[in-house]
Fold these 4 entries.
Entry 1:
Amino acid sequence: MLSALLVTLREGVEAALIVAIVVAALARLGRKDLIRTAWSGVGAAVVVSLAAGAVLFATAGGLEGRAEQVFEGVAMFTAVGVLTYMVFWMARQGAAIASELRDKTAKAAAAGSAGAVFALTFVAVVREGLETALFLFSTVRSSEPVAAGLGAVAGLALAGALGVAIYRAGAALGLRTFFAATGVLIVLVAAGLTAHGVHEWQEAGILPVTIEHVWDTSAFMPQDSVVGGLARSLFGYAESPSLLEAVSYLAYLVTVGLMWARRLRFSYRRQALHHAST
């Protein structure tokens, strides 16, 4: 549940941030006539995202046996790739996203281009929507569907509330701390999805199983318990992982975690130097 909440919150906040900045910029520029166009782009993106999610779940739902295991592994590894790109992109570009969006909105408004405003919000929201559909598919497969669904709804609701707050604050809220904190959790979620993808491909016979059970913690924290289920859905906890699962989890966590932390520090230093020079 918490991993689904985290993913939809993160994706929802990014989409809400973009929409809030665009709408606030249009209002300040005196182009309120284009605000409806911006919201039309949002609405179209939501429809496309829901349709893509429905197709994904319907297609995967008809698979069985090895085909299902292979497909789920592919979906999880794809989600890991997109999540990894996302946290690095936000670490690198998060500080400049507001000014860049305001510039694009101002150019579109000055040109009187409703199509450009529509495309700006549509592309931003549909990208987050498609990523969310992929993440939710991977999350639902590795946790309880009902709990994951509730978490996803809660995350979107929180993201919507933050979007309203961002708009009312003139789209000037500092979200650096938010993205840094959720970035840590996203790396943990991605590590868990990596291990689960390895598990699926081992069951499908694509990856070898050298040592089937490295340890067994089912005696004090089984996966079907409240705590074990929470740890599994959020961090990819497995009570009895194979050697390759454990190694892949730790390798991703250490390698990507250190690289992301280094990128984040570099981005903050660059931003501090920029402010000092101006």
Note: Residues 243-277 form the longest helix (35 residues).
Entry 2:
Amino acid sequence: MARGLMPDAAIGADVMTGFPGETDAEFQESLHFIEEQPFTYLHVFTYSERPGTLAAELGNPVPIAVRRERTHVLREVSKRKNLEFSRRMVGKVLPAVTLEQRGVALTTNFLKVQMARERAPNQMVDLEVGGLSDIGLREHVLLPII
């Protein structure tokens, strides 16, 4: 559940997995910390060596398979947290900007909404969220379009 004064705010974080020396215990500690935060999305990426950088010379590399597994775990956490956040938006009216992509808007808290009717791009609109869709959310409609 969102905490604080801005429960509808989208809060994201960049997370790197597999930095040299990262232990299983440290990864679990990071995972626990992430689970406890009101993050709505994560940008998860896997550490990769870059020649000439200090990190590449640290030694104690995390095996690539372990890095990838940790990345997978955190991306699944991100999907779940984003879905939980999206579900909390159902029934709310959210400000959004219409996109060039036909029938789609992006809310001020970074959720895509499939609009009930097309609108011109680059317009600020208020959209009542009716439910979830394959792109994120869908706009509420009084009468279903057949």
Note: The first strand starts at residue 12 and ends at 17.
Entry 3:
Amino acid sequence: MDRPAHVDGQVAGLVLAAGAGRRYGRPKAPVLIDGERLVDRAVRNLRDGGCAPVLVVLGAWVGDVPGARVVVNDEWEEGMGSSLRAGLRAVDAHEDVQSVVVTLVDLPGLTPEAVRRLVDSYAALAAATYAGKRGHPVRFARDHWAAIIEVARADEGARGYLRGRPDIELIEVGDVASGQDLDEPGE
């Protein structure tokens, strides 16, 4: 039996960081946590977890992000769905990439070890879980990108596409990472 292409191809990393951070009071990408911008922390976690190349979707805030290719989402106000679409379209240009690990910029407790578990998965669809509760990052094989782009709207992202799918592998990472997001200043 042939191995699926997504197992042998490169795994890209994609950081969704275009939002305005309304509840937070400003865009989260440039926010410093322990002297490191959230966007740089997310890129480092993906890179150290085995993703290459790494792309970052920006919008409300745009700046340089060393170690990543910046994709500017001019439709960022529509919500996370537009950023996911923009990011997947940009990753699609990398023909050697067969799978992508997608994370959000506001997960300061994410670690390279958690990312590595998704990178090492043979599943075409995978999601991190924290004590059994689904979260980010998620992994999509190339053959799912077009369908995800079709349904990614508003702040739903790929949730509707993944809901109820029996073929998604749930990968527990709560022992090496935290899935808590940063929603308000002081968290």
Note: The radius of gyration is 15 Å.
Entry 4:
Amino acid sequence: MKTLRQYISLIEAAESSCPLATKDIALNTKNRDFTQDKYNYGPLNVSEPGDYWEGVAEEWDTTVEAAKASNCGNCVAFDISPRMDKCMPGVTSDQDGRLGYCWMHHFKCHSARTCHTWAKGGPIDKDEVSMEWGERNEMAYAN
């Protein structure tokens, strides 16, 4: 059974053509937590990453420097287009980077993090490309 807040999130997402996870905190959190568990999304705190980058470098068989350079901010699925900025809940940047949307895992994602499914080629910064990703990922939308 859906809660009133979930119905409101569905309506907001449909009216704005935004991915549902940008409006539904519970769904966003579920998708983010799944990505943390299954694909090592992190580091949890980008200011204090601990040995996170060493682990990523080992997983990818590369250097720590190369791992750090392969982050959400330059991933092919990281959407920071003007239309996606309108879907975000508020301020989208801080001293470490900015918030965008991950089309691979369907959650609001920070540019200074990464995960094991990172792929070169991003970010998405044009509305047309963002819409193409959205059309290919209809299940991430409310409508």
Note: The first helix runs from residue 4 to 16.
